[in-house]
Design brief:
CATH class: Alpha Beta
Number of domains: 1
CATH topology: Alpha-Beta Plaits
Number of strands: 4
Structural class: alpha+beta
Helix content: 25-40%
Strand order of the largest sheet: 2-3-1-4
Radius of gyration: 17 Å
Low-confidence stretches: none
Order of helices and strands: HEHEEHE
Largest sheet: 4 strands, antiparallel
Distance between the termini: 48 Å
Number of helices: 3
Mean pLDDT: 85
Strand content: 35-45%
């Protein structure tokens, strides 16, 4: 019986493991006034956490942490890019220092 349970647990897809991802988002001027992060949280099963932000009339730059299953985070990033938002991973963790 234990072997069957172990076998079932091992079959859980790797892509559904919960993860945290930090991203830099660069908004073009036309997207600054749109609630893109709110839309993202409604469209995908991810928790959003704004870690840092700077907005001017020309550009918006946001450090955003996404938490959720990888199967939700990957399409969420693609959706942001389709909306015209440039997305880059945070390379080093300077916010916690």
């Amino acid at each position: 019986m234990a072997a069957k349970i172990k076998k079932v647990l091992l079959k859980k897809p790797v892509k559904d493991i919960t993860q945290k991802t930090r991203l830099w988002l660069m908004y073009p001027a036309k997207q600054i006034t749109h609630p893109v992060i709110w839309e993202l949280s409604q469209k995908f099963k991810v928790v959003t956490n704004v870690r840092q932000a700077s907005v001017t009339d020309e550009i918006g730059v946001v450090c955003l942490e996404l938490e959720g299953p990888r199967s939700e985070i990957t399409p969420a990033i693609k959706w942001l890019e389709k909306k015209g938002v440039k997305v880059e991973p945070v390379e080093i963790n300077v916010l916690e220092s």
